[in-house]
Amino acid sequence: MDCIFCKIASGEIKSSFVGENDWFVAFDDINPVAPTHVLVVPRKHVKSLEELAKYDTECMRSFFELVEQIVELKGIKTSGYRLIVNQGSDSGQEVEHLHFHILGGRKLGRLG
């Protein structure tokens, strides 16, 4: 498989993780759109939210626990942050491996 996020998650492509657990890895985005811009990526190749929904509750609990650890580490828990997932080409998804963006570190404008 030629998926860049699978290669990062497996360690084939070196990256400094800002957080990780059994299900997900998190690292700073190389093209940030905010002072804090972290990607949270499933370790296993998952293409969609629907596919992720088939996993058990432990997976989802571990996701939200990791997000909480990251926002505390990055110092944006109190000031606020945005958690975004882009699904499909119309949303702007560029890599066909489900990933979540954590944005913060400044006031973020309205969406839409």
From TrEMBL:
Position of sequence motif Histidine triad motif: 97-101
InterPro entries for this protein: Histidine_triad_CS, Histidine_triad_HIT, HIT-like, HIT-like_sf
Residues in HIT domain copies: 4-112
Gene Ontology MF terms in the entry: hydrolase activity
Keywords: Hydrolase
Active site: 99
SUPFAM superfamilies named in the record: HIT-like
Gene3D superfamilies referenced in this protein's UniProt entry, alphabetically: HIT-like
Protein name: HIT family hydrolase, diadenosine tetraphosphate hydrolase
Organism of origin: Mesotoga prima MesG1.Ag.4.2
